[in-house]
Amino acid sequence: MIKHKGMTLIELTITVAIIGVLTAIAYPSYQQHVLKSYRYQAQGDLIMIQLALEEHRTQGRPYNDEENTVSNLCPSCNLTNERYSYSILATDDGYTLTAAKQAPQMSDSCDDLSINNTGQTNPVACW
Predict the structure, then answer these.
(1) pLDDT tens for residues 99-123?
(2) DSSP assignments along 47-106, one per residue
């Protein structure tokens, strides 16, 4: 008598069901992790822009100097505007830096990120 080795249909169905359940649990968690990692990158970029603005200020230039653009202040920032679009709203003695969410980041639970010259961040819970 020849004994065949292999899987039965029941065993295969159970295996596929287990994989499906694990995927249904893990995938949303993975997506939230990805959104959070891009948010942390945007926060880091905003802080790098802020440090560059403050460095220019200590050199006697106003915050609203025409050379103070995001690309000039932070060449190493992710400026593809794929996930966040950065902007600077500056006056002679103050500024607000904003990272506005773009389409792939819209399902993130946090709103647009901002930081000003006093160090105040918004939304506070997301920093």
Answers:
(1) 999 999 999 999 999 999 999 999 9
(2) HHHHHHHHHHHHTT--TT-TT--HHHH-TTS--S-SSEEEEEEE-SS-EEEEEEE-GGGT
